[in-house]
Amino acid sequence: MIPLSWYLIASAALFCIGLFGVMVRKNAITIFMSIELMLNAVNINLIAFWHYHSQMQSGPHVTGLVFVAIVIVVAASEVAVGLALIISAYRRRKTIIIDDLTLLKG
Amino acid sequence: MTGLQIIFLIVTGVTLFSAIMVVSVRKMIHAVLWLVQTLLGVAILFITLQASFFAVVQILVFIGAISILILFSVMLASRVIQDSSPQVVKKWWLPALVATLLLGLLVNFLALWPGFETTLVELPEGSDNIAELGHVLISPEGYIIPFELASILLLAALIGAIYIAIDRKEPQSS
Amino acid sequence: MTTETLIWLLPLPPVLAFFLIVLFTNRFKGLSHTLALVGAGFSWLASMVVCFRAIQTEGLAENPFNQSIGWLPLGTGWLEIGVQVDPLTTVTLFFVAWTVLMIFIYSIGYHHFGRPASKQDKPGLPPEGTFQKDKKGHRHPVPSIEPLYSRFFALISLFAFGMFLLVVSNNLLTLYVGWEIMGLCSYLLIGFWYGKESARNAALKAFLTTRIGDVFMLLGLVALYSTTGTLNYQAILSSPEVLERLAASASPLAGLSWAELIGVLILIGIIGKSAQFPLHVWLPDAMEGPTPVSAMIHAATMVSAGVYLAVRFFPLLTVGWEVGSPLTIPMLAMGFIGAFTALFAATIALTQMDIKRVLAYSTISQLGFMIAALGVGAYVAAAFHLVTHAFFKALLFLGSGSVIHGMEHGVLHIKQPVDPQDMLNMGGLRKKMPLTFWTFLVGGFALSGFPLVTAGFWSKDEILSGAFNNGQYVIFSVLALAALLTAFYTMRQITLTFLGAPRSKAAEYAHESQPVMTLPLVVLALFAVSAGWVGIPEYFPLVGGLLPNWFEEFVGSMLVGVHPKSQPSLLPLVTSIVVAIGGLLLGWLAYRGVKTRTDPLEKPLGVFYKLFINKYYVDAIYVYIFYRPAAWLAETFSYRWLDLGIIDGFLHATGRFSVWLGGKLRTLFDIPVVNGAGDAAAHRTRDIGSFLRSLQTGHVQQYMAAAIALLVFGGLLFYLLGYLG
User: Fold this and answer.
1) pLDDT band, very low/low/confident/very high, at C562 (cuts 50, 70, 90)
2) Hey, which of B6, B101, C25, C213 has its CA 20 to 30 A from C614?
3) d(CA A28, CA B106)
4) What's the rounded Cα separation, in Å, for the pair C278 and C283?
């Protein structure tokens, strides 16, 4: 009943909001949260397409779900490691403002 | 407009609003809470798509674990939150423009796909077969290898996080 | 050994000695003089054997000992060189061998062999004497040995080789080679004491003056070769056809036939070599060399070589002349130049106070006699005088060397600078150096022509007779006057040197020289007395027919055709006796009372005295005419203008231009373009790098933004292209 396009547009919008947040926010943890938004947008997309494919193929079809599972797993592990990194960086540099972490400066 | 569509619009609106709040608010605690709401919205969207298992998984993992983790980190780095300087970069309109353009592009290219306008109907009863999912995840003809890799990834992440975050302070002589 | 082989070997021992001394024994003085003496001795021995055999040969003039080899391959044949001994060669060889040997022996003593070497003596300066302790421990000054002793013997050996080569050769080419070798040795030996500037200048003067003569002589040689195709004596001088042909053909020079032209050219060479006017200026200055050199080169042999050549070439010089006919052009030239020189040099000799200078001018004068004799056709007389003159002039020079040594010994004792060669410092040496005195007296009388007992009388008498009998009364008078002056200045010399009382302390200390020096004097004196007796003319009263006039027969046979026999003529005979004795007497009278440093002749001669003592200012004239322009040409024109100004200027300008050009290229091209290109490449690269580096801000969000922007941009591009395409 809901056209696929609505879901796709919704996920695209969420993705772009997340992208905006990554590019704009100064705080590392906030950037992480924006990354989570992007991952969730991806998940919505994947589930939408699973539904579409199940609808088209008229058979049980779980590939999309496997993909989503993996994405969730990856998101979880990434959050864990990433926050550990941020804590470690905070301990060393006493800051988590991205602008002050400029060791990559050439 | 069916009832489902109205619900979808309201949920989507809330989700997107929450997302915008995540990237906009000043205080990080607020951002985290807005994130929780966004994730909740996403879970509801999953339900509308008849992926109820994953809706639960979403709430369990994302909200229950990840958001809590983020909340803990925020509380550990609480001293930084007292920072009163602007929380966004200068010239934030440039990424805004880029993001908008990206949105436009994405939608446009998606629209080129023929199946873009198809309506999603309700699936038959046995479509959301979790047992089937489990079976596929384990069977060698299925997706066991990605499953195992994901497990190893989790293990690596676990060990890595511990190793990175462990406090290696010298024993102080007091 | 055949005579021909002996003749070939004759010149070789001295040159061998030269090479051995130069290469090996230069450090060993005794060995060097031994080698030289052995060389001269062997040549002397060979010469005596050859002369002996030659005298015994009948008809030597027509068939001389002759041998040639082909030396230079030419287009059609060979240029042959070889040896020849005919009567003229025989007599020349005789006196050359004897005088050379005597002078070699004399030189050993002259250069103080046996005395210690002094450390103050510098090579190139005469030795100055050193001190020696005698048995009692007294230090008294002795002469020191010449530092360059071996070099002297090497050089005189080389010279002896040159002279022997000249005498025995049968062609003009080897004669010229010997001539030039002697010229070289003369230069080296006059400048033997090269530390003295006067000696250096004198050597150069001698060489250059004789060179002028030699150039003309070479032209004559070349003309002779090109007209006749040969340089052999026999082919030219003994064949009347060749001589006639040369006399008949006209040369490019107006009015002269080839024979006359060649004769004149060769005559110029002889004038240079035998120091006749105007090329006489080198001989007095050549007295700078050691006395043996003066004796050998400038009295006995080298200057005689000129006269020898004239005598040898008599047939060419007198072609077309017979007794009584007018003289040919070369003969005229010889006659006048010879007679003039004889008188000219005699007048200068009157005023000279240096003992060697007097003898030098005397040599010039006597050579003038010989040339004049040839000029009037008195062939035998000229050859005779050549032989006798060599003996007594060598004797006189060696005697003067002995006197100078005695004076130097005195100078060493008194330690004052006194010129040992100035006759005004001498006097009374008769008692101190008796042997030198008597031999010098013999030589002086021979030079003056003292009648009967001296060789000079016979030869001079022949010349005067020849001039008179051939109708050349002018030349006869001039020669007679010159003979008078000769006797006068000779007696002047003897009186000032040996008679009277010593006029300086140095003369008081003089003593006789060692036997190695006085023995050659005695031998030469014997020859000075007896050499004339082989040529006594038959018409001579009293002693006329006692001894055959061997010389005239022997040498006279050289002349092809009828030769003028010495004819009885009283006037020349009386003239020569009167002139000789009168001159000697006058000389003794004028000078016997000289006690001060004035010349008694100064007042009577008046203005002439100044003219004579300054040698007629000939040297000054030559400096003005020749030397100054040449020096200007060399110094100013060639050196300053051409060399420094133009050539160096050009070089400097080129150099400066190149430097300027190089600088300009560097500043305009090298530094801006070449360096600049390299530097610019480097700098631009660095600037690009700096620019690119500024992109790496370290702000991760900017990286992300840039990546997304690029993605969006690419997507837009695709989208637009999709719309368009």
Assistant:
1) low
2) C213
3) 27
4) 12
At the topology level, CATH places domain B1-82 in Four Helix Bundle (Hemerythrin (Met), subunit A) (1.20.120)
Distance from CA of C721 to the nearest CA of B (A): 13
CB contact under 8 A, C708 and A104: no
Burial class (CB in 10 A: 0-12, 13-18, 19+), A104: exposed
Contact C698 A19 (CB under 8 A): no
Q: What percent of chain C has pLDDT over 90?
A: 31
> What is the span of the domain harbouring residue A28?
4-100
Q: Mean pLDDT, to the nearest integer, of C18-46?
A: 91
Q: Is C721 on the interface with B (CB under 8 A)?
A: no
Q: Test A102 with C697 for CB contact under 8 angstroms.
A: yes
pLDDT of residue B142: 83
Q: Label residue B84 left, alpha or beta by phi (over 0 means left) and psi (-120 to 50 means alpha).
A: alpha
Q: Does B101 touch chain C (CB under 8 A)?
A: yes
Pick from C243, C265, C261, C340: nearest CA to C560: C243
Higher per-residue pLDDT: C595 or C377: C377
Distance CA B78, CA B66 (A): 18
* A52 found inside a domain: yes
Would you call C711 an interface residue with chain B, using a CB distance cutoff of 8 Å? Answer: yes
Tokens for C396, please give them: 């006189």
Query: Are A23 and B132 within 8 A, CB to CB?
Result: no
pLDDT tens profile C252-278: 877 788 888 888 999 999 998 888 888
Out of A2, A6, A79, closest to residue B69 by CB: A79
Q: Compute CA distances C424 → C404, C431, C496, C509, whole Å.
A: 13, 17, 7, 15
Separation between Cα atoms, residue C299 and residue C283, nearest integer Å: 10
pLDDT tens track for B121-174: 777 666 667 888 888 889 888 889 999 999 999 999 999 999 888 777 755 544
Residue C548 CA to its chain's centroid (Å): 37
What ipTM was estimated for this complex?
0.89
Chain A interface includes C697 (CB < 8 A): yes
Average pLDDT, integer, range C398-409: 89
Would you say residue A71 lies in a domain? yes
Mutate to test the interface with C, among A23, A85, A95 (most CBs of C within 10 A): A23
Number of domains present in the structure of chain A: 1
**DSSP β-ladder status, C78-85 and C130-133:** unpaired
What ranges in C499-568 are assigned the alpha helix state H? 505-509, 515-530, 550-556
Distance from CA of B141 to the nearest CA of A (A): 13
Tokens of C495: 């009186």
Residue A105 domain-assigned?
no
Which tokens go with C41? Answer: 């001795």
pTM tops 0.90:
no
CA C236 from chain center: how many Å? 28
- Indicate left, alpha or beta for C165 from its phi (over 0: left) and psi (-120 to 50: alpha): alpha
Q: Is C703 exposed, middle or buried (0-12, 13-18, 19+ CB in 10 A)?
A: middle
pLDDT in tens, C497-543: 888 888 887 787 777 888 888 899 999 999 888 888 877 776 676 76
Beta-carbon contacts of C618 under 8 Å, excluding residues fewer than 6 positions away, are C278, C280, C281
pLDDT of C400 over the 50 cut: yes
Neighbours of B63 (CB within 10 A): 18
**CATH number of the domain enclosing A8:** 1.10.287.3510
pLDDT tens for C700-717 read 778 888 888 888 888 888
Res. C563: pLDDT tops 70: no
Contacts of B64 in chain A (CB under 8 A): none
Q: What is the DSSP string of C303-342?
A: HHHHHHHHHHTHHHHTTT--TTSPPPHHHHHHHHHHHHHH
Establish if A106 belongs to a structural domain: no
A24 touching C (Cβ < 8 Å)? yes
